[in-house]
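pasting for the record
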Amino acid sequence: MSNPYIVLPIIFQLFLAVLLMFCWNQKNLQKLISVVGSVISLAIAGVLFSSVLNNGILTTQAGDWVAPFGITFVADSLSALMVLLTAISGLGVSVFSVGSVRNARVRFGYFAIFHFLLMGLNGAFLAGDIFNLYVWFEIIIISSFVLITLGGEKAQLEGAIKYVTMNLLASVVFLTAIAILYGLTGSLNMADLSAKVAAIENRGLVNVTAVLFLVGFGIKSAIFPLYFWLPASYHTPPPAISAIFGGLLTKVGIYALLRVFTLIFIPDEFLITVISIIAALTILSGGIGALIQNNIRKIFSYLIICHIGFMMAGLGIYTEVAILGVVFYLTHDIIVKTNLFMVSGIIFKIKGTYSLRLLGDFYKQYPKLSLLMAIPLFSLVGIPPLSGFWAKVYLIQGGIAQNSLLLVGFILLGSLLTLIIIAKVWAGVFWKEGVELPKKREVKYYHELKPIKKTAMVSSVVFLSAVSLFIGLGAEYIIQVAAAVAESLMNPQPYIHAVLGKNA
């Protein structure tokens, strides 16, 4: 079904970003525009998601060029879900930014660049051709590089160099893979590529091209052994920026892998073996990396890697049940990881440090805040019936049914490591006796903030914690959506027909 309004999530974020640039020196107006705009963005995303569920796949062709010759935008159940999750996380981070981001960074265009980043994310999720996906990836890289360097502190710049170097390498690999794919098929439209790639007789060349896409998207997703840039960079910017990075940026790579490896390159035994090995090593390296860290933001950064491995494992199992688990885990992980980095920001504002060795007594001093923070922490572990539990059930169920017992073992190992790590964080931050730390001049502590800033920071954590609770306690609704997404991914014919129409 053709619907030109599916590009509204992109256009509205562009409108917000441009509007904010005209309010360069009006910091309070920028904050107001960002929060109100994020609420409207959530409403737009909700309407789009509802339209896709009720009416099926929606498409639009830029300039009225008939597919596969023009630029296509497609909103299916997966892309609409990702746009909705982006809007939810974006609203949480926007409100958190009101209380946590310094006015100097606001005056340097923080909110404008933040909305440019959200525009790039929405564009990537709605892109219907592979080169257009590359273009949106570049917008994401440029926006995120500006955000990670905003403030110009030494640690930020060091982290930014590692971040941008690896992501530019990913872009080069991605673009090379696109060029080879275009040479093989003469097309860039993903729906059109589905049939044309399947018809290529030289499967070895197809697998080489698929591996190039796996490497390109794998760098962006931080899979083994291409993950080292993430823990070296995600802990360096302010918590609000880390939150949107931790929640969404690596998940764009997972989205792209899901899209490409269910629509264009249907994995054979070779690709499934490669993906499964990468998944197992990603879980192991991320879990062990988190286990030996003492900085809570570095711990959360390594846990991003570990849990990317869970989603890769579902792709390696490659059954509808396993893909359902991947989509559920993706939904849970975006919300929880965004929330955890905001939680770390509040802890830092109160204590002035991220070090587990120096933290402590948090529950004794702030019992209500501690109970609030327990929600994302325990959701991450997957304690029943919280959100992380249900996704793992489907991943394990899919693995057992497919006899992928090694991957099931690594998923269980990753879950055990996560439990140990979160127990270490909980004991270190909330239970053990703390150390009296000298006040740092460069830190504006929580008790020094205006009430509106305190409210903004805490309310954003409350908001995302409520979403996490809904995902866990209302799991039947999420399972219905995830099942619809998994069915559409494993049966791409409706997607192809919606894009190509009579040309399908």
